[in-house]
Amino acid sequence: HRHLLGIEGLSALDLTALLDLADEQVEVSRQVEKKKSTLRGRTQINLFFEPSTRTQSSFEIAGKRLGADVMNMSVASSSVKKGETLVDTAATLNAMRPDLIIVRHHAAGAVHLLAQKVDCSVVNAGDGAHEHPTQALLDALTIRRNKGGIEGLTVAICGDIVHSRVARSNMLLLATLGARVRLVAPSTLLPPGIEGLGFETFTDMRRGLDGADIVMMLRLQRERMNGSFVPSTKEYFRFYGLDQEKLSWAKPDALVMHPGPMNRGVEISSEVADGAQSLIREQVEMGVAVRMAVLEALASHLPNR
Ligand code: CP
């Protein structure tokens, strides 16, 4: 594959190969002094039209660990603010002959469009409510390292599923690797038409968490709600916020995940987020290893210069 635009279309074999490669990168990603040369002489542009803490910084660290020259495009101070279109921005950057462009955009499909307009490899760092493939890969790597595998696990994805690209990529990846995926949310935050696609849905947290090995919490994405249904924070936390009591409904050895950014006291309590069953910090660490693996996997498909 020349690009990584989504989990959709990747086979169990593709995913396992990427996760194996990422596992090998975990030790390397911790050794700052041992930079690799896989991307020496290559230029990586991080083009983020939406805010990011984890994804952008870990792509920058990953690129640098592999020897690439990494440039963070500041969209807020770019000519995008003067009305330049996505296609013109892509053509402009393409003329500078980058080897990799990492893109986050608020519109679903924007990354696919950009990939058609440039000569280099493109990685989707999140497009609207569509996909966030490297997040799903780092979640899977974290699960694998803690549970020994993915097949047969029961994973409860809870919260604002309808607006979540993280949920979508995770649903695709986890189902492909043989996990049982449950979606737990108020009916207004479940994707319409999801019934019959092989995912169990629950509107009741107690039933949804019963027997879960992994409890994956999601943030309420108010920026995507367009005034339709915005639950009150207090009410939401009472019914759907993960606190110690609700976590006790899952398996005793259940582990808690959250892609970040967290809204403490809304979808998760601090006690759980910082507790012994939380993998949240490890997820962030795995982000660097996974992004190194993705960049390495694309390295053999980069343009000949
Ligand atoms: N999980 C995630 O994508 O975080 P950022 O928005 O901080 O990159």
Automatic annotation (TrEMBL):
It catalyses: carbamoyl phosphate + L-aspartate = N-carbamoyl-L-aspartate + phosphate + H(+). It is an enzyme of class 2 (transferase). GO terms for cellular component: cytosol. Coiled coil: none annotated. InterPro entries: Asp/Orn_carbamoyltranf_P-bd, Asp/Orn_carbamoylTrfase, Asp/Orn_carbamoylTrfase_sf, Asp_carbamoyltransf, Asp_carbamoyltransf_Asp/Orn-bd. Residues 151-297 form the Aspartate/ornithine carbamoyltransferase Asp/Orn-binding domain. Residues 2-144 form the Aspartate/ornithine carbamoyltransferase carbamoyl-P binding domain. The keyword Transferase applies. L-aspartate binds at K82, R165, R219. Carbamoyl phosphate binds at R54, T55, R104, H132, Q135, G260, P261. Keywords: Pyrimidine biosynthesis, Transferase. GO terms for biological process: 'de novo' pyrimidine nucleobase biosynthetic process; 'de novo' UMP biosynthetic process; amino acid metabolic process. GO terms for molecular function: amino acid binding; aspartate carbamoyltransferase activity. Its EC number is 2.1.3.2. Pathway: Pyrimidine metabolism; UMP biosynthesis via de novo pathway; (S)-dihydroorotate from bicarbonate: step 2/3. The keyword Transferase applies. Pfam families: OTCace (PF00185), OTCace_N (PF02729). PANTHER family: ASPARTATE CARBAMOYLTRANSFERASE, ORNITHINE CARBAMOYLTRANSFERASE, MITOCHONDRIAL. Catalyzes the condensation of carbamoyl phosphate and aspartate to form carbamoyl aspartate and inorganic phosphate, the committed step in the de novo pyrimidine nucleotide biosynthesis pathway. Heterododecamer (2C3:3R2) of six catalytic PyrB chains organized as two trimers (C3), and six regulatory PyrI chains organized as three dimers (R2). Belongs to the aspartate/ornithine carbamoyltransferase superfamily. ATCase family. This is Aspartate carbamoyltransferase. It comes from Microvirga brassicacearum.
